[in-house]
Amino acid sequence: MAKTAPPKEGKPLTNVTHIEFTSRAEDIKAGLIDTFLNLQRIDTNLYLARHLLKGRRSYNAVYGGQAIGQSLAAAAATVDDTFVPHSLHSYFIKTGSVEKPILYMIDRIRDGRSFCTRLVKAVQDGEAIFSCQISFHKKERDAIVHQQEMPVVPDPETLQPARITAEEYLKDNVGDSITQKVLNHAIKEIPNAFDRVRPVDPAKYLLKEDSEPKASIWIRAKENIGDDNRLHQCVAAYLTDLTMLNTAIRPHMRKGFVPSMSFSLDHCIWIHEDNFRMDDWMLYETVSTKANGSRAFIEGKLWTKDGRLAVSTAQEALVRDNQQSKQ
């Protein structure tokens, strides 16, 4: 049986460089591509990330979506650009710190004619903090075609950013003490780099009414990302971790629940389209279908504005209360 030659190394992504730079984790004006997703190739299958973003202002933990996006960027740099990522399955192993660089180590599991598989391990201080397996598929023609219809929601231009929505509500000094506490915490803790979200239902976002663990937001990158489809896929991976955990917790907060600990345990992504733009408005709907045993399960769908389902996601998260934290 003749052996199939492995695909050649692809063209480098425009955000993978050989240039050293110091971390700018506190620089909220820094660009997305040249900082948060920027990698330095230090050797074959080894990439270093120096600019790391906090998920919360008061906590030096790395934003989980950044590890996802950077892992995809590093893996894509080792695959010919005729292959596109179609699935990513990852685990958050240990909290990463923004005060130290992250080393991404790529294991080229398989290079085939139709599929390539990469295993990525993110390391700090010699210990794994994150791992993921990514599968790439060579573009093929359609065999069967169908998809669900995109939900009908208000246009993003008619909605306000989440931070402004919360600030205006608090300025009017309305809402109960729980609501005010939740919104003030969000304003204080969420980095300005995430000010790209517009809630589709402001009343539910403001906890004005009871709701199911569901949420829909419009989201987009603030800057022009360019025409490399792989970068848009990396940005999508980066942003899909942004609201999933909050979708599960927020309805319970209206009833007085305050988590003592909450973070993502794993994150899965399926990329259905390779020609969407994350610098255009995208609709991200999330729903938590189950929560028990201190874990919550959340699913997501990322839609283009013209109605194409571009990305599906799934995540399990740890959610603990004060009683458990004392055990």
Automatic annotation (TrEMBL):
According to UniProt, the name of this protein is Acyl-CoA thioesterase II
**Acyl-CoA thioesterase-like N-terminal HotDog domain: residues covered:** 61-137
In terms of InterPro entries, this protein maps to: Acyl-CoA_hotdog, Acyl_CoA_thio, HotDog_dom_sf, TesB_ACOT8-like_N, TesB_C
Under NCBIfam families, the record lists: tesB
GO cellular component terms given for this protein? peroxisomal matrix
Give GO terms: molecular function aspect only.
fatty acyl-CoA hydrolase activity
The UniProt entry, under CDD domains, shows:
Thioesterase_II_repeat1, Thioesterase_II_repeat2
Annotated ranges, domain Acyl-CoA thioesterase 2 C-terminal: 214-316
What GO terms describe the biological role, i.e. biological process, of this protein? acyl-CoA metabolic process; fatty acid catabolic process
Q: Which family does it belong to?
A: Belongs to the C/M/P thioester hydrolase family.
Taxonomy, superkingdom:
Eukaryota
The record ties this protein, via SUPFAM superfamilies, to: Thioesterase/thiol ester dehydrase-isomerase (SSF54637)
Pfam families, per database record:
4HBT_3, Acyl_CoA_thio
Q: Which UniProt keywords apply?
A: Hydrolase, Lipid metabolism
What species does this protein belong to?
Caenorhabditis auriculariae
Under the subunit heading, UniProt states: Homotetramer.
